[in-house]
Fold each of these.
Amino acid sequence: MNNSEPVLMMLFGATGDLAQRKLYPAFFRLFREQVLNDHFAVIGTARRPWSDDHFREVVAEAIADQNPTEPEQSAFLSHFYYQSHDVGDAGHYQTLNQLADKLDDKYQLAGNRVYYLAMAPRFFGQIVTQLKAAAIIETAGFNRVVLEKPFGTDYESANELSKQLTSVFPEKDIFRIDHYLGKEMIQNILTLRSTNSLLESQWRNQYVENVQITFAESLGVEQRGGYYDQTGALKDMVQNHILQVLSLLSMELPKQMSEEAIREGKVAALKSVRIYNPDEVAKNFVRGQYVDGELNNDQFQAYRNEPDVDPESRTETFVAGKFQIDNDRWRGVPFYVRTGKRLTEKGTRINVVFKNLTNNSDIATKNILTIYIQPTEGFSLSLNGKALDAQAATAPIRLSYRHDSQMMANTPESYQRLINDVIVGDATNFTHWDEVAQSWKIVDVIRQAWDADQSALPTYSAGTMGPKEAFDLVENDGNQWIWQPDSWFVERGLLKK
Ligand code: BG6
């Protein structure tokens, strides 16, 4: 991690789940690495009337599993302050400003401030407007704002929000979090491509048959039914995480790996993704919703019976689709994507399937590069060799590399990397407005076509890898999903399809 600047973190949503699960633990890791040192302070704000002491107890609990020593913990906690705050009350921002100035003096923070908005997006616009009105952002140092997703609910609302934000902060100071961009193997995509001539020389339609991106989750909607039922898998996962990964896989490699050049490459890639008309949506995208199911003797209830979900909900918990990229490098290569809740197994992976030298369509003979993003990290490459003991037959051979558990335990966690990047002002692994805008344009037409189509929603049993339509989508092109974790369970009678 880089050595840091002094900084005041002003955290909106300090009593929330994200702050406790992700942010406080990440701050502590950065503190241990001295990225956050004597010159930092955190002001937590939320409606609840907590005291500094209570706030510190909550933070202590959030970092307990990192086993801090007593002196370490009390040194860390001494930098945390709490201010009860109503985001709509102008007077509260004055109080906040006074506290910020006081801490700036006390810890010599050079006027550097990060405003972390870990709360419902409907408050984003209001908060930044008030920060400006109260002159909190008028300091000698940097002033950066960090936003959690979702950024808007469609292009129009995102554009509106963007205008509000940029009337206060210049785009370079707006850090939109996509936590997948903090993951090790996603950050590795450009390295793999740019440092291996073996891969990059083949990274085009002449050699690649199709690309598959799977973001599978085994969990259901848990306690987030209220949010999820309004959102669905398309907006929750495809508009942001999946399109980000697709842009990293498909972009032209920049001459130098600078923040601007990478961003330009990603934006250009997204602009080449075909925007479908409603007929094309019907042909290239499928959705599904899970009904009850049983996997390995565990019973799961249907999505419609989950807490806070409308019992007649038409929200999709699964999406599979085929993106087409209209440029010289990728014309004709399907980019298949799929994501869903309550699938067989949690796993995020990319498969790049290369064309065979002959017309052999047997999948076992294809060269496939797999990038494992989680839960394991690594990659594998399937090649062909001569089968032992056979004169002419070939056998598939898989070269496989996975990070071991010790290495994984030592790699920085997503939020730790991303917060570090905000402090040092590196926006490479954040989503620029141009990327957000284009992603919404791609996704909006799919959403609209689906909203206009009131036919029965395809369903899938909890524990399977999605509705039959998702398999047909790929098989109709003569291809197949490479990752099929469900077959293992089906073969053993642990899952009925
Ligand atoms: C979030 C989605 O962005 O990503 C969640 O809102 C999803 O619905 C989560 O569960 C998955 O993230 P991870 O890091 O657990 O794979």
Amino acid sequence: MINLVLFGPPGAGKGTQAILLAKTFNLVHLSTGDLLRHEIAEKTDLGRLAAELIDKGELVPDEVVISMIESRLKKPRSTVGFIFDGFPRTVAQAQALDRLLTKHHSKVSVMLCLAVDKPELINRLLKRGLTSGRCDDLEAATIEHRIDVYNEKTAPIINYYESQGKYYPIQGLGSIEEISENLKQAVMRMSSKPISTLNQ
Ligand code: UDP
Ligand code: MG
């Protein structure tokens, strides 16, 4: 199986690139942000809890997102693997993901980290806020807080994967096509196998 963790700060382009990578490698795209927004739209109890935290730019508790991922991994389906977008967001979540994948006789293949500087992230998110309908994209203060939370709680995950030889940084500035091509090359290089055998 190929299991990709697509990593990076808010606004780095994870969602856009995850969709393209999922197509290229035939992977199931799992975005915990999208799953949480779905819960919010459906007005579930979980959605109400999530909305409160998301609007403030805080993280939803580990156990909540871990169990969302656990139920998606349990679902029987024929896939060559998954692409995790916006998850894990803490080292505890990264450890939980390893445990869950081990149960399924699988593992994380590579962590691809999109690098974008802070002023560009803020620009992109404010621009997205004009059309996304997302409260957390509207104000510079909330966006800055999300970036601070990323630096404090999420960025330490880099060391976690680096120590396993799975960390792969990618320049996140450039055209969507260019970045997508670089990500694709990185997946193939990290697996050091030709694409035809990657799907086995
Ligand atoms: N979120 C979270 N845990 C997750 C995914 C999302 O707490 O696993 C929350 C968090 O408040 C985050 C927001 O949902 O700021 C939006 O997440 P998403 O990944 O969609 O945003 P992005 O970082 O891609 O802009
Ligand atoms: Mg996203």
